[in-house]
What we know:
By secondary structure, the chain is α+β, with helices and mostly antiparallel strands. Helix content is 19%, strand content 30%. Strand 1 (2-6) and strand 2 form a beta hairpin. Helix 3 (346-359) runs parallel beside helix 4, helix 6 (454-470) runs parallel beside helix 7 and helix 9 (553-563) packs parallel to helix 10 (590-597). The two termini are 41 Å apart. Bound molecules: (2R,3S,4R,5S)-2-(hydroxymethyl)piperidine-3,4,5-triol.
Amino acid sequence: MGIVYHESSRTFHLYNDTISYVMVILKNSHLGQLYYGKRIRDREDFSYFLETSPRPMTARVFEDDDTFSLEHIRQEYPVFGTTDFRQPAVEVCQENGSRLSDFRYQSCRIEGGKPKLPGLPATYTENEGEAETLTITLKDPLTGVRVELFYTIFAEGGVLTRSVGFRNEGGETVRLTRAMSLSLDLPDRDYVWQQLSGCWARECHIHSRRLEPGIQAVGSMRGNSSHEHNPFLVLRRPHADERQGEVIGLSLIYSGNFRIQAEVDAHDTLRIMAGIDPETFTWKLEAGESFQTPEAVLVYTDKGMNHMSQTFHKLYQRRLARGYWRDRTRPILNNNWEATYFDFTEERLLELAAKAKECGVELFVLDDGWFGRRSSDHAGLGDWQANLERLPNGITGLAERMEELGLKFGLWFEPEMVNKDSDFYRQHPDWILAAPGRSQSQGRHQCVLDFSRQEVVEAVYEQMAKILKEAKLSYIKWDMNRSITECFSKGWPADRQGEVYHRYILGVYALYERLTSEFPHVLFESCASGGGRFDPGMLYYAPQGWLSDDSDAVERLKIQYGASMCYPVSSMGAHVSVTPNHQVYRNTPLHTRANVACFGTFGYELDLNKLSKEETREVKDQIAFMKKYRHILQFGTFYRLNSPFEGNEAAWMAVSEDKKTAIVGWYRILNDVNGRYMRLRLEGLCPEYAYRNRNSGLIHYGDELMYAGLITTDDTAGQVSEEAHSTDFESRIYVLEADGSTAK
Ligand code: DGJ
């Protein structure tokens, strides 16, 4: 890995074993993009990559040079309003109303490791050898605004991160009206754009299309990253697939309003951009003030989409998630939400917990409804003290009883929200986001607290920290159940209202940071009505997130499969719930529900007391299986094999680091009769190892399993039998184990 600056040609080359990223200081002192892709040899001068030809009808930067127009030059951080008519990465509004700027190269700095981003989640290094960071300083001579472009290249994998720092070193106040984290111009548009989109209970569905001239974008203006679009994008070459081909993944480490877009111009040049949504953002920079954008992560590979995903998984597991739980397998939990909703007493919870313990569950989670006067979603949010009518011994007493049962105990909070029917709101009616003189929209009968204000965050912290100090809590589920509307803060003046969305998220991050550092052993799970904020920003604080409120096994196949494009299995909250399922009313077999959830942070979202004896036995077996293999399921190398978006069968697998154990999940949506012979070509095994198939007892070499395939043909194929072997929504888990020997 290295970062070189070639003084003579004024080019920068960042490279590791996988990628090269080449930039040049242009004739107008802006920064140009020369190459991004598979590693190429370093050389003194790459300037032939800069393609300029005199084109008619272009506006030139220099009177005497008809080849130099920003319209046709690939750039690193394009500005607004000069000779480039594509969307800019930055806009700085000045006192006279001008939004023009001219960021010229000043200097560069190369250092080992990676500096922290103040107040923002970001990838990190544990020692200097893991990455190198290049900081390029540009300055606008007229306003004195300084821009620092941060590029970090990691030694391992095709990972490059980017973010931007601003500092107003001039005398006048300016306003940033656009400050993207990343802008990257690529020479062609021969890509398939692939996004993760959906809505509540249908998150992370994969949608693809070829890039066409014009702008295509995903984003959020809801205050949270949103169920609708994940801050993630794949650009793959049309012939690339899971196993091979060139793929670029782009992920934004941010939980608020964002935009990721691709703009294809008339000459098929492609501009990718990612950052805070410019529509809902302005930031005032007085003389001497600074602003830091969130971080964007680029992953390049020529080994297909699985490899791109594995690179993200590893990076986000080990160098984005932090703390005690980062590398630890996750406790198997029982959450009471779908078992009781708001209808519970201490006694009822203890009954649930006792049964959970008997089945092998390790953590009992008390969801919504334990506090204030919360008997429905109309009241109580903001009053984070136990409801003593329901829980006469308080949270402390309940936690003690859980401990006596031999269970860890966790609690649900929705720290950013308040019901008008709460003591907290009655004491602080001014602490919500609401615009003076305007009506206020409703969302689940609750208002959004103004987390852009420190005193509000402080007051919520006090309440949460008190419980965490008093009661023995091992886990917190941090929920967020409505989007932001009428985003106006009484804590900020008129000319800073454009900052409120971003300041809100900074407040959320600050509270997370404080609580996770003060209570390092508590496992945090993020949630926003399921996956409304399932993003890398949250992963920095909470190593797992409740991926979706849809707990149906069939629905979950698509959601988990889609999410795996970027997010590791260890980050995906996945539970077995009751049938008929509460979201889609579907009946799926208990084993299928578990077979899907075990590729996640496994748990149960039902009343285990209601299961039959046989079902209880099955649950005990599922838990025993999970305990034995969760380190591989959650932290092994994950491969997508068959897409649930493309057919009746889905499959994925996880392989241990030493390749001696592989666990394959195979799922069929609808049953068929007299069906075809089925084989599943596996991935990531050692070709020479002899693997014992725990299901059949047969032994197969790794090469057979990868190249000929695992035979998954159903017992009923081609026969009529009196006994049902399989039904709709059938699934199987195959465990393949090798002892490392290569002989049969
Ligand atoms: C939405 C979450 O996604 C659910 O799991 C549950 O915690 C409810 N909120 C509680 O109100």
